[in-house]
Amino acid sequence: MDLVNHLNDRLLFAVPKKGRLHQSCLDLLKGSDIQFHRHSRLDIALCINLPIALIFLPAADIPVFVGEGRVDLGITGHDQVRESRTTEVEQILDLGFGKCKLQVQVPEGGDIQDPRDLVGRNIVTSFVSLTREYFEKLEVEVGGEGRRGATKIKYVGGSVEAACALGVADGIVDLVESGETMKAAGLKPIDTLIATSAVLIKSKHPSNPELIDRICSRIRGVITAQKYVLCTYNIPQDRLSHGVQITPGKRAPTVTQLMNKQWAAVSVMVEKSKIATVMDQLEEVGATDILVVDLSNSRSS
């Protein structure tokens, strides 16, 4: 099949082809019922149930392709959007996964404690634009380039954490999730440039705005379902106000009177991270038959 000739009437949706965001993106597409089959070694996949073509690209390239209007929609890191310097993309949603920080890291046993001490020295990073912007501000703070010279920023595409040990750099700027890799490399953080996570972005001139709105609604529904659970419980009418105070819901709880008019049934969305504490509190105020149901999808605002 000549895939290129099948793209004309399709919305082009770019997703990371590998890396830390890849699997979470595939899970999100599955939850949004965007069905596709990716043939081995091909970076284009036609969706079966929607007029969409998925384009698998390096995460760093996605803001550029979206900004130039080559593709309509994309998922990448907020860090990559900032690094690309493009102004022709709109960030629609923070997807809540792939959270990490872009940090300045230096050798644990070294004498550098402040990022200003790195001005005029060698820095290695995959984020040259953000790093240069950061150190240009520091150069101004310490009195410009005249006293120490310009900070030397070198690009490497991977294994940034090895640069100090190899004598290539005095410090690095790289993404950090748990920090274990940096600790293993003998590094410590001394500043954070930005916090980042996966974001959904779109072109400012998309080919099919209505389809984009539908996809955004589906993705937003999946994210909400991942964040919340449905909690139901029975509670005496004279304790209902206490239960509602504990579980106010996103907008308001659904309250139904039982056949026994002294009791009410409550159904409400609760943040998944808080549900254990909420159940304890409900039990303390007299609620019973407390049930929690996982959500697979939703439509909520």
Question: How would you describe this structure to a colleague?
Answer:
The chain has nine helices and 15 strands. It is an alpha/beta fold. A hairpin with a 5-residue loop joins strand 2 and strand 3. The longest helix has 19 residues. The protein is globular, with a radius of gyration of 25 Å.
Q: How would the blueprint of this fold be written?
A:
Blueprint (H helix, E strand, L loop, with lengths): L10 E6 L5 H10 L12 E3 L5 E6 L4 H6 L5 E5 H7 L4 E6 L5 E8 L14 E4 L2 H14 L3 H4 L3 E4 L15 E6 L3 H5 L2 E10 L1 E6 L5 H19 E9 L3 H7 L7 E4 L5 E9 L3 H10 L3 E7 L7
Parallel strand pairs: 1-3, 1-4, 7-8, 7-9
Antiparallel strand pairs: 2-3, 4-11, 5-11, 6-9, 6-10, 12-14, 12-15, 13-14
Which features would summarize this protein structure in a list?
five-stranded mixed beta sheet, 301 residues, 9 helices, alpha/beta, six-stranded mixed beta sheet, 27% helix
Query: What's the count of strands?
Result: 15
Beta-strand percentage range: 25-35%
What is the average of the pLDDT values?
92
Poorly predicted ranges? none
Q: Brief overview, please?
A:
With 301 residues, the protein is α/β, with parallel strands linked by helices. It has helices at 22-31, 62-67, 78-84, 128-141, 145-148, 180-184, 209-227, 240-246, 275-284; strands at residues 11-16, 44-46, 52-57, 73-77, 89-94, 100-107, 122-125, 152-155, 171-176, 187-196, 198-203, 228-236, 254-257, 263-271, 288-294. It is 27% helix and 31% strand.
